[in-house]
């Protein structure tokens, strides 16, 4: 057996995890220095829990027990502890055993596992988290099964094992339940792990957004300053919980008069008999003097004082921190280290952090009304969740959404994003019933693979719209800890699109798209009706639709004399047209008598449009307006996000603006309509007026109709909604990863293992042509043979062996895949042509040793393509496809999908490049065998997915003919695989 000296302390097993209740704990290996912690922990465990652990009364640990439980070799005997505040709250250990249950060493692959959780922390999901981590450790050390004996009465521990999702056996022996768990991950175990991750991380965000009490630490007596501004915003937002100001500089005598209980009234106001502190909020020198629990601390003290504040918060049970203080990683190397220490310190107490250098958080829910930010005005309540990494961008987005009448459910500006990130908020918004649309401004992706996974799940139920900042700078903003990625932004963007993320380029587009998705139903297709009182604006809209890939119907010009009734009738007609999926309404100022331009009354036009939309089938409606007073504001006035319901008012189907039934009176312009509307409103307020007018007042408010100042902006937003709606429909029918009967997975694994053993210690190795062909052949991918031709005679012999006609080409790295340089001669029919081509190549490009000529058999003519696969440390395995040639490389016309690819992914991959028409009969050419091409893509995907050591595959060229295809060249690279964080146990980013 191993001894402790045989293996160093495995610090890569250390991890911070989020528990079921949203708090955090640290998991780490137990060391010989933990004897006192272990004894203290055991003393706080109940007698019942000790009995369940040892199957007998066991009041205290003996010296021998303490030594045994703190001395491990980290191979055959491993112990992990979950800690909070540096103290143990739970432990788990395994001991490797043989088939007879006796202590053993490798190659024995079974271990006995046992847990002990402090009673005060049971029910927090600590044991489940420890099981995930001890399982990962065991697999790393070659253990494939866990055995556990549990008393039948210990139902909680039995549930921990049975709910984990692993394949297991269960028996009853000698009065105990014996469980055997196969540690190989299963689809169910991964689903269980991710479901627990989602609940825990969502709960951790909920604790930040809905605290029962808040303390602003650093709020001074003098007006101004960050702390005082945050305190004032909390007060003015009407925060419903208990609110305190904390500042150690407060005068002792003034503070003493304020030590009073806070009332629990629903408005969160304080008893008028209490002495006010700051902005009417009780003020204290320390958290201890408050005398009541504090859930959230808003920290606004100088950076050098933050550690002291964090320690005080941790000691007094604060659950989360919003750190407004700057001076961290954005300020340089010293600040980065200060930031790391901040995160480590907060997590050691089980707290999560927004920030540092944060702008703050807002929750508009009536039950909370929290504005713990530097935004002077809380946004209106709405259905949009907004996350930004920049305070300045956050201000701009809040202002833009407010101007256009949109409300928010919650807002977060995370600053340096040292802990809580966009991934955490995706977990929260996924199940938040108050959020319908998610908007994110991101300057970095801390865990792109996890983000794509969470975004895909969230996008299946609500839109996720992202704008990326710093996407071309090649580096993350200061203070953001992100993994390195080798793939360009365009590739990352395409992979996010695969996950259903709506990507936009500017914050203006983020608002434009968000407004549409929050206020209108998703379109059923791409057919767009265009109507309005400007023929020119209609043509601009038509062109914009074509540019965005939509299918516009011919614009309908209502002429500049159109009234609101004309608009209402035309919109109702378009909405009822089954050939229309969405409507864009264009409106310009009305032209009155004598050519005078009048702005008209936008409120009346808005009412007419809302009335038409309400009485019609649900379809998205967008308005493009030019200098039309009050229209945008009036359209934004509706607050409901409920779907429209048909109107039952009499005459709803009549043609508004037409002469009355008796033939009297033409339609009237804006002004007259406005006056009649005012009189009708007055009649309704007075209890008189038409019954239909009164009924209209009882209808629910319509969703907002978004208004845009330019046709291009409206159409771009609509196009994003159309593409997203199509993605939702496709996601409801997911593709399949096909099985291939002719794959030799074991043979491929043996080849990969042999090469890796031969090159142990190297960063990676490119396979020889022979090994590349052998590995690909294991997955049914045949590479056309080549014969070296170091001389003209050798070329002639190779051609005779392969059979004429043949190709002669160079394999030198600087000439390979460069037909534009003349390094290829095709259709050589006899010995004379082979010798002539050989002489031409060597004369033009260099000697045989330099250009490395080879001979290859000719294949049927077709389209030259390229298939690649690569593993990126940030996003994982990526499958890529494009046409071969410099033009495609110059234009970057390559499509990408994440591995493992489904049959749907492969079909989309082939069809999503801009040059795809060449494959499908462009300009009368014969279509290629796309089925064979898709199968090749799926086989490459399967190879990379099955063998993570295969970090790169390049098949070039792949000639796709009318029937079948030929792989003419292949390069395969092996290397130790990067860690798969998405398959390992739950863990927060390391600091």
What value does the Rg take, in angstroms?
34 Å
Q: Please count the beta strands (DSSP E, at least 2 residues each).
A: 40
Straight-line distance between termini: 34 Å
User: Shape, please?
Assistant: flat
Largest sheet: 8 strands, mixed
Name the poorly predicted regions.
Answer: 1-5, 252-275, 638-701
Helix content: 25-40%
Instruction: Kindly estimate the percentage of residues that lie in beta strands according to DSSP.
Output: 15-25%
Structural class, by secondary structure, is: alpha/beta
What's the average pLDDT?
84
Number of helices: 30
Going across the biggest sheet, name each strand in turn. Answer: 1-2-3-4-5-6-8-7
Task: Please describe what this structure looks like.
- The longest helix is centred in the N-terminal third of the chain and has 23 residues, at 187-209.
- By secondary structure, the protein is an alpha/beta fold.
- The radius of gyration is 34 Å and the shape is flat.
- The protein contains 30 helices and 40 strands.
